[in-house]
Amino acid sequence: MGTSKGYGGAKSGLVPSWVDDPSPGVAPGAVPVAPGGVPQPGPPPPSRTKPDTSGAGSFQGARSLFSRFAKTGSQSALGGALSSYVRNGTGGARRAARRMGVSRAAGATLLGVIRNVQNLGAAETLRQLNLPGLAGRSAADVFLAMLEFVCPPGGAIDEAIARQAMLESIGDLAEAGVGDFDAMTSDQLREFFLDFIAHSIEGRVMADLGARGVTLPTDVATVEAAQQQLHDFVTGCTQSELSGRLNGVGQLDDRDMDRVVNEIYEAAFELVAAAGEAAR
User: Fold this and answer.
1) What digits encode the pLDDT tens for the residues 74-110?
2) How distant is the alpha carbon of residue 109 from its chain centre?
3) Fewest CB within 10 A of the end CB: N or C in the chain?
4) Max alpha carbon distance in the chain (Å)?
5) Domain ranges in the chain?
6) How many Å apart are CA 110 and CA 149, to the nearest integer?
């Protein structure tokens, strides 16, 4: 997560910066054409879907536990905060998924890009996205250039959560030493997508709990360690379990993307809540 700072990530750990850094734009207007001249639908740009916050309860218990976790690093306090956030604060995993708003749409667009890479190849996918000059470039550079397409900028917190999640995932990609975009394996693409899911969940949790009432330590190193612990907790209980849900992504059409991503978010929140309860 530390490497993500180079791509505009939060510079003060659990205190989100939500800063939109400029990056190369992508013009998605061209009609994609697959090899052989057969029209191929490309991933639609994400809509600015507002989060559904209906049915939300009180976050007071989750905030109290999260404050204790931030100060002490207690795994049980973190688990209690996350389970309380999902079960009591949002009203359950399904309602928690509905809170993701723009992140769900951005995830559907990103999954569409991954599908096209698998079906058409990296070079053709970049041509569809008006980025043919990035063929042979690093995966981090390519995904950074896609930022405006996957996560359009906006002033609302929801756009900021999606963009921050994408930027932090790009930082993780660079930190892991992933090379050229063209050479990324299906497993690496899948891991990048699930990393975006995890980071966006972390961003949503912090936006809901950190708005008021959470006491953070003043020591930067302690805050950064807590952020890493939060990330490890979310990824640890979601990535391996969710990976199987991406099998057969090459057969999905654009209409399937929103449904699949919503199901992934719902499953992720259920896994987070269950792991939180087990950690208490």
Assistant:
1) 999 999 999 999 999 999 999 999 999 899 999 999 9
2) 12
3) C
4) 60
5) 57-279
6) 9
**pLDDT tens, 134-193?**
999 999 999 999 999 999 887 788 999 999 999 999 999 999 998 999 999 999 999 999
Structure tokens at 257: 């993307």
Q: Tokens 């994609």 map to which residue?
A: 32
What's this model's pTM, rounded to 2 decimal places? 0.82
Residues 6 or more apart whose Cβ sits within 8 Å of residue 4:
10, 167, 168, 169, 170, 171, 172, 175
Tokens 């399937």 belong to residue? 256
DSSP one-letter string for the chain: -GGGGGGT--SBTTB------------TTSPPB-TTS-B-PPPPPPP-PPP--TT----HHHHHHHHHHHHH--HHHHHHHHHHIIIIIISSHHHHHHTTTHHHHHHHHHHHHHHHHHHH-HHHHHHHTT-GGGTTSBHHHHHHHTHHHHS---SSHHHHHHHHHHHHHHHHHHHTT--BGGG--HHHHHHHHHHHHHHHHHHHHHHHHTTSS----S-HHHHHHHHHHHHHHHHHHHHHHHHGGGTTGGG--HHHHHHHHHHHHHHHHHHHHHHHHHH-
